[in-house]
Amino acid sequence: MKRFNIIFNQYIQYYLYCIIVLVIVFIFTYSAFILGLIIGMIGSLINTFTFEYYLAKAKEKDNIHISTGNIWRYLIVILACTTWYFYKDYIN
């Protein structure tokens, strides 16, 4: 599991770097497409973090219930999609 934690930290760094680059590009272009990418990347970042959190909880010795946080991850996707639906004139 140590290897997975290293990979997880690298993914978090990549997500953060991509979000920073997309925000800088959005500041200069005000593109609806870039804004959609930013929202998607933030949703993916939160989903990855949620999965890692529940995986770390499942590794504990005292824990008898194993969960991957599917409900929370579905809620994040629903939130991202409803954000797009209500602001689809501004987000592509």
Question: Can you tell me about this structure?
Answer:
This protein has 92 residues and is mostly helical. The protein is 78% helix and 0% strand. It has three helices and no strands. The longest helix has 28 residues, at 2-29. It is flat and about 50 Å long. The model has no long low-confidence stretch (mean pLDDT 85).
Helical proportion, percent range? over 70%
Number of helices: 3
Low-pLDDT sequence parts: none
Q: Work out the number of β strands.
A: 0
Oligomer: single chain
Label the structural class. mainly alpha
Percent of residues in β-strands? under 5%
Elements, N to C (H/E): HHH
- Sheet having the most strands: none
In short, what is this structure?
Helices cover 78% and strands 0% of the residues.
Keywords, separated by commas or semicolons:
mainly alpha; 0% strand; 92 residues; flat
SSE inventory with pairings:
Blueprint: H1 2-29, H2 32-58, H3 70-86
Helix pairs in contact: 1-2, 2-3
